[in-house]
């Protein structure tokens, strides 16, 4: 009995002993697992691709981020490389000869107002139209109408001001006429409030007559100077334009010439003074007082628009050039060439008007920034000061009509066309600036999240280390039999990575999709891929988008030309291969054309296979043999052909008009072998590249393109009368599915 009791006691003692050991062991295992988990949490934000700092950021004090998280002071230490680091002042320069001008005439453009139609009314010289503006530190591109219309697709622009604002709008219509004429969608028969629509681009252009910018009323027809007397209500809006502005994407505000006329000034519904009104007991405050208050009210009105989110351009004062007398005292403008910079200066009323504009603009800009509104200065003053030769003078009417000489407005065509060169360049800059801001805002949020996450994880890890250090020390000091358990329970960071591949998916129909460009807007399309030019009857093949498969995959974003150019700023890309590689390069040129056309810097060679552009350079012969090459190599995989009912030289064609399912069409044995060979060879060179700091990646277009038998030129890469019998089922129409390759490229560059 005692023996049994002893055995039972001994048994219970062992049960307790082993239970205690097991409990301690489990505690240690749980503690160790918790520690490993927190270490991973601490390090994942550093290495995980979704929480990676952008190249736009340079952290100057990482220790402060780790020690105390991120606050506003830390963010001040982050240096952001702006897209405008080396920007050029396009408004400072000289006029230089341009024998290629003009780009329209009074015969090709119906929009020219009679009073600016200098050629129609017999101006004898034409040299005044053969000049272009050359900024001091860069070149200003000549106006590109197709590029402009692409940039303003689905947008609207309003010219707000006097007849000089209308002068610029008519210049713009004439410059755009090489691509498209607008239709009249004016809501009134009043010629001072015109609205035009470019239907292909869904772009609206409007002009609003407001010569004094604020509410005004003409009280006398003659007045002291025979030009009328006006009441100006300097603190009241001219609702004829302010009530219409909220839906516009761009506003170009200007004015000044009408402030020379006699005016009576009102504020709070009371007369406070005037300019040359010659009324008894009314103080002469001068035209500059009225202009400053009116400009302030107009800019304040824009800042006060509740739903306005557009960009406001203040077009600065354009000086008149009366010589030999005032405008109503025989003054004229008979010069035939521009001034040089050292031949004239801005002075008198022109200087005063300009300085008032600059000062009021700065105040409005500061206020607008608080609301997220953008104000830009379209500074035409210096350029136009140098153009006394650009006015109509007496050539804005028939010789048998007596009128004052016009040295205020500008002949069309003429130097005012340069204002729209400026405008296009500013819109392009705005597009780049917006892309830059979006990138920086996105990275700023990631920086907050990542740094805060790392700090919290590190703090928790340190706390757990302090709590568990005795047990962990004991655990690691025990028998080595524990180590195999540790190894067997370790896991790699790769299991946390997102496995989505943008190259695996399906084509989905999108009836609202429109091409980023057309054969009219992009001159780089080779005839052999210019399917629309040569009469391809269907266009449905353009309405498909690539949708990556998998629950973790987002939609493939559309190509963003401005953001792409920001990502490759200061870099170069070379397309090395055959005519399909050139096909992709031309697709990229066309996609980027919505922001900028490249300069041709090709090697001096008649061989068109070696055309070299600023953004696309053949930079290497043997990738791994280049000692200084530390770039990135992207292998674009096989692009399948789609000949059906025969081989390429035996009547094969590609007549399909929509994509196919992956199960409907497969690679030929030759294409499959070639594709697998590409992947295999890349893996070999990839390991060698790592040793030399050269990164190799795959742009796997094969799966996407095997499903697009509808995207080839077939017989629409030439004119029917050329008797070309072989169909092209190798290259791709532009625009077309090959544009998706550059969406892939865009995502790879962002990753």
TrEMBL record:
<keyword id="KW-0812">Transmembrane</keyword>
<protein>
    <recommendedName>
        <fullName>Trichome birefringence-like N-terminal domain-containing protein</fullName>
    </recommendedName>
</protein>
<feature type="domain" description="Trichome birefringence-like N-terminal">
    <location>
        <begin position="499"/>
        <end position="550"/>
    </location>
</feature>
<dbReference type="Pfam" id="PF14416">
    <property type="entry name" value="PMR5N"/>
</dbReference>
<dbReference type="GO" id="GO:0016020">
    <property type="term" value="C:membrane"/>
</dbReference>
<dbReference type="InterPro" id="IPR025846">
    <property type="entry name" value="TBL_N"/>
</dbReference>
<dbReference type="InterPro" id="IPR026057">
    <property type="entry name" value="TBL_C"/>
</dbReference>
<dbReference type="GO" id="GO:0016413">
    <property type="term" value="F:O-acetyltransferase activity"/>
</dbReference>
<feature type="domain" description="Trichome birefringence-like C-terminal">
    <location>
        <begin position="615"/>
        <end position="748"/>
    </location>
</feature>
<feature type="transmembrane region" description="Helical">
    <location>
        <begin position="30"/>
        <end position="48"/>
    </location>
</feature>
<dbReference type="GO" id="GO:0005794">
    <property type="term" value="C:Golgi apparatus"/>
</dbReference>
<dbReference type="Pfam" id="PF13839">
    <property type="entry name" value="PC-Esterase"/>
</dbReference>
<feature type="domain" description="Trichome birefringence-like N-terminal">
    <location>
        <begin position="87"/>
        <end position="139"/>
    </location>
</feature>
<keyword id="KW-1133">Transmembrane helix</keyword>
<feature type="domain" description="Trichome birefringence-like C-terminal">
    <location>
        <begin position="140"/>
        <end position="426"/>
    </location>
</feature>
<comment type="similarity">
    <text>Belongs to the PC-esterase family. TBL subfamily.</text>
</comment>
<dbReference type="InterPro" id="IPR029962">
    <property type="entry name" value="TBL"/>
</dbReference>
<keyword id="KW-0735">Signal-anchor</keyword>
<keyword id="KW-0472">Membrane</keyword>
């Amino acid at each position: 009995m005692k023996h049994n009791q002893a055995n039972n006691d001994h048994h219970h003692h062992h049960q307790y002993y082993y239970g205690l050991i097991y409990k301690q062991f489990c505690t240690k295992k749980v503690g160790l697992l918790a520690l490993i988990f927190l270490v991973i949490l601490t390090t994942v934000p550093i290495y995980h691709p979704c929480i990676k700092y952008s190249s736009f950021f340079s952290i100057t004090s990482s220790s402060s981020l780790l020690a105390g998280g991120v606050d506003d002071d830390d963010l001040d230490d982050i240096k952001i490389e702006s897209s405008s680091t080396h920007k050029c002042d396009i408004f400072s320069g000289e006029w230089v000869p341009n024998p290629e001008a003009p780009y329209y005439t009074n015969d090709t453009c119906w929009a020219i107002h009679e009073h600016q139609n200098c050629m129609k009314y017999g101006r004898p010289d034409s040299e005044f139209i053969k000049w272009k503006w050359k900024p001091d530190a860069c070149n200003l591109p000549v106006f590109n109408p197709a590029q402009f219309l692409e940039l303003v697709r689905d947008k609207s622009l309003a010219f707000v001001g006097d007849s000089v604002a209308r002068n610029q709008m008519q210049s713009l219509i004439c410059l755009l006429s090489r691509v498209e004429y607008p239709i009249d969608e004016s809501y009134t028969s009043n010629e001072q409030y015109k609205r035009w629509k470019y239907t292909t681009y869904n772009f609206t252009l409007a002009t609003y007559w407001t010569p004094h910018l604020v509410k005004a009323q003409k009280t006398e027809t003659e007045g002291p100077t025979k030009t009328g007397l006006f009441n100006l209500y300097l603190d009241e809006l001219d609702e004829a334009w302010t009530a219409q502005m909220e839906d516009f994407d761009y506003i170009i505000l200007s004015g000044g010439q009408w402030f020379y006329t006699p005016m009576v000034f009102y504020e709070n519904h009371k007369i406070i003074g005037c300019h040359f009104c010659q009324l008894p007991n009314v103080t002469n405050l001068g035209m500059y007082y009225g202009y400053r208050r009116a400009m302030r009210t107009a800019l304040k009105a824009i800042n006060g628009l509740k739903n306005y989110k557009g960009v406001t351009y203040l077009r600065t004062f354009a000086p008149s050039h009366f010589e030999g007398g005032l405008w109503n005292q025989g003054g004229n403008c008979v010069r035939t060439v521009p001034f040089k910079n050292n031949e004239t200066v801005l002075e008198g009323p022109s200087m005063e008007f300009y300085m008032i504009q600059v000062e009021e603009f700065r105040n409005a800009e500061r206020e607008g920034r608080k609301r997220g509104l953008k104000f830009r200065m379209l500074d035409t003053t210096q350029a136009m000061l140098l153009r006394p030769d650009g006015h109509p003078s007496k050539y804005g009417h028939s010789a048998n009509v007596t009128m004052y000489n016009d040295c205020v407005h500008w002949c069309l065509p003429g130097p005012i066309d340069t204002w729209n060169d400026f405008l296009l360049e500013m819109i392009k800059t705005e597009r780049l600036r917006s892309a830059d801001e979006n990138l920086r805002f996105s990275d700023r949020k990631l920086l907050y999240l990542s740094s805060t996450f790392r700090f919290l994880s590190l703090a928790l890890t340190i706390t757990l280390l302090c709590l568990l250090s005795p047990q962990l020390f004991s655990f690691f000091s025990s028998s080595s039999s524990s180590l195999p358990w540790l190894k067997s329970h370790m896991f790699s960071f790769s299991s946390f990575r997102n496995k989505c591949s943008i190259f695996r998916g399906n084509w989905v129909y999108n009836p609202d999709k429109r091409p980023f460009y057309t054969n009219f807007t992009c001159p780089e399309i080779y005839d052999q891929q210019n399917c629309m030019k040569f009469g391809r009857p269907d266009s449905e093949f353009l309405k498909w988008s690539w949708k990556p498969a998998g629950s973790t995959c987002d939609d493939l974003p559309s190509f963003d030309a401005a953001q792409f150019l920001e990502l490759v700023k200061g870099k170069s890309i070379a397309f090395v291969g055959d005519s399909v590689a050139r096909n992709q390069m031309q697709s990229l040129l066309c996609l980027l054309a919505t922001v900028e056309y490249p300069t041709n810097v090709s090697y001096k060679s008649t061989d068109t296979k070696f055309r070299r552009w600023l953004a696309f350079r053949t930079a290497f012969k043997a990738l791994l043999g280049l000692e200084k090459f530390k770039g990135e190599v992207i292998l674009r995989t096989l692009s399948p052909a789609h000949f059906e009912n025969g081989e390429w030289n035996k009547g094969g064609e590609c007549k399909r008009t929509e994509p196919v399912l992956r199960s409907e069409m497969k690679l030929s044995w030759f294409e499959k072998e070639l594709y697998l060979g590409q992947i295999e060879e890349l893996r070999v060179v990839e390991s060698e590249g790592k040793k030399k700091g050269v990164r190799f990646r795959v742009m796997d277009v094969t799966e996407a393109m095997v499903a697009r038998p509808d995207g080839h030129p077939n017989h629409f890469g030439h004119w029917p009368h050329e008797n070309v019998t072989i169909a092209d089922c190798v290259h791709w129409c532009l625009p077309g599915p090959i544009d998706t390759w550059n969406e892939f490229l865009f995502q790879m560059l962002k990753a």
